[in-house]
Specification:
heterodimer, A: 186 residues, alpha/beta, Rossmann fold, two-stranded antiparallel sheet, B: 175 residues, six-stranded parallel β-sheet, 9 helices
Chain lengths: 186, 175
């Protein structure tokens, strides 16, 4: 079982121009824990919509690589968005779901993936070019390489332990997050 | 020009290249125009909150976006509006075909339509109802310019007075 902070730290190592859209809650705290970066677009809401922000960005900027890093709860809320991605199939786009099979922010209730709902197969069915699960730290460097050079859309389910590391909060100011992101990107 | 041609030309004049949408009868001439024209980047979504999210991401990547939906679809979007589009100041141009009024046959549409303007008002999103071709270009053009310069979303509601309403509803009412 993977540790979420270790996975995120490894994925974002030497990230270069990678644009990162973390889903609200734990994934945002994980990315913030890796240090501040202008190409992080931290969410404070819009649960279920993280992948779509990434899609819009990937379509607008085919010259850049986009990573949506989110949880199983957010992904389950936006399953239709996987189908929308499957129509456009942007090559510069990847989703990594940190799947702890629970709603970590609301009291660790079981999510549908705990019952065996298979996000990897759903992404396959939605025409992702690559879709697979990882459960071992030794596989994370390859995932990181895919984020920078793999032909997307890419879907990776990282099977993480259901623990709750300390919160590291980015700024709450959505306008400031967006402006800084856009200045760094455009 | 028809009302739909005027809107599409005004989008182009303002460099609005992305159109995200969930299909709708009244929107058909707009969507047909968008998908037939290489100028536009057309992205169909399964839900209206998806369509708003795509427009948000594209705006950050430097492309202006318009989101097309019908009234009942708007009712899917308030969480995304209130927790992303409004506080992050994304100038999403929403074009909403107005169902539920002036000849609606579907009772669900009639009730959900009443939630639209109160929701827009509650999150302080400017909205205008487009009713006639004489003022159409002015209202669309100025609304887009204000949205972009003030970084605020705007909702343009297509009244049946402008579009003639839903052709399917017309047939059902005749029974």
């Amino acid at each position: 079982m993977l540790e979420r902070r270790a996975v995120v730290e490894r994925l974002l190592r030497d990230r270069g121009g990678l644009c990162v859209i973390p889903g609200l809650g734990s994934c945002t705290w994980d990315v913030a824990a890796c240090g501040d970066h202008p190409l992080n677009f931290h969410m404070w809401g819009a649960m279920g919509g993280t992948a779509m922000i990434g899609l819009g960005l990937a379509l607008a900027r085919p010259d850049r690589r986009v990573l949506v890093l989110t949880g199983d709860g957010d992904m389950l809320m936006g399953l239709g968005s996987l189908a929308t991605i499957g129509v456009k199939r942007p090559a510069n786009f990847a989703i990594v779901v940190l799947d702890n099979r629970h709603y970590g922010e609301t009291g660790m209730q079981a999510s549908h993936t705990a019952a065996g709902v298979d996000l990897v197969k759903i992404a396959e069915g939605c025409r992702f070019r690559i879709s697979y699960a990882v459960g071992d730290m030794g596989e994370i460097d390859h995932v990181r390489d895919l984020l920078h050079t793999g032909e997307g859309p890419i879907f990776v389910q990282a099977q993480i332990a259901p623990n709750d590391p300390p919160r590291v909060l980015p700024t709450h100011d959505g306008h400031a997050i967006k402006q800084r992101f856009m200045q760094a990107l455009n | 020009m028809t009302w739909s041609e005027t809107i599409l030309q005004t989008l182009k004049d303002n460099d609005v290249r992305l159109v995200t949408y969930v299909p709708d009868n009244v929107l058909t001439p707009l969507l047909r125009g968008v998908t037939a024209d290489n100028y536009f980047m057309a992205v169909g979504a399964t839900r209206e909150d998806e369509a708003l999210g795509i427009a948000a991401g594209a705006w950050m990547g430097g492309i202006k976006g318009c989101v097309m939906m019908q009234t009942s679809g708007f009712a899917v979007a308030p969480n995304t509006l209130a927790s992303l589009i409004v506080p992050f100041q994304i100038p999403a141009i929403m074009i909403i075909s107005e169902r539920g009024t002036l000849g609606e046959f579907n009772s669900g549409q009639a009730l959900v339509a009443r939630t639209m303007r109160p929701v827009l008002d509650s999150v302080a999103v400017t909205h205008h109802t487009l009713t006639d071709e004489k003022t159409l270009r002015f209202m669309v053009d100025k609304s887009i310019k204000q949205a972009v310069s003030t970084q605020a979303p705007v909702a343009l509601i297509l009244s049946p007075l402008l579009t003639g309403g839903n052709p399917v509803a017309e047939a059902k009412l005749k029974g």
